[in-house]
Amino acid sequence: MEKQIAELLRQNQELIRALQIRDHSSSHKVTVQFEKFDEENKSFDSFIERFETYLDVQNVPIANRAKVFVSSLSAKLYQLLKNLLAPDIPSDQTVRTVPFALKGRVENEIDRLEREKVESSEWATAVVPVVKTDGSIRLCADYSVINPNLIVSQHPLPRLEEIFGRRFILITDHKPLVAIFGSKRDLPVLAATRLLHYALILQSFEFDIIFRKTIEHGNVYFLSLLPKSSEELEVKDDITIFQMSQIGALPITSKELRQERVKI
User: How far apart are CA 146 and CA 243, in angstroms?
Assistant: First the structure.
């Protein structure tokens, strides 16, 4: 979301200018106020749509709309956008000095990392040198500078308002679900109460349920067959080794899987 807003700002020099001068109250006075954008609980698309409609109703001149938009940003999102738009907007972070006793070793470590061509990031923060037991230096990042500027998603899974009105597909190897939820007919009269409850909830969404055989579900079929004997796994490729290592960490055993498979 923040990158989407940053792209919008990059296409409009007036918005960038408004973002630069927001800290100076004397040069950033707006006569029209709009609601603050809540980046954690609102969609940017719906916000910008309501924002443009509001400015049209208020007859706000185009030249002043950039200032109104920037004034609607929260302090957290404002600071984040300033960082995303670098080098368009210079950073105002002060440089942290390195202890004089460690300066030489820190410079040598930086030179070593440059020679090895380590991957870099668009973000930068202060370096915290950590002295190891052998006297060498390990460079760590001070995330206390970055963390306040991050917008953490409070909803890693889609919320109801995000998927409402959008068709989604559920692929399952449990065929009765296709007959119960996937059919256009009414629900069976003798259906369990919990199924009726879920069916009522699902009526608000557009969805398709597709049946797929267990053997065609690679992950499910693999779980039901493990573990195998060593003779059957003479050739262990990287995928097999990785899958076996993941299976070993599961809180269930192959015996329990076989028992549940018989019940189905």
Answer: 36
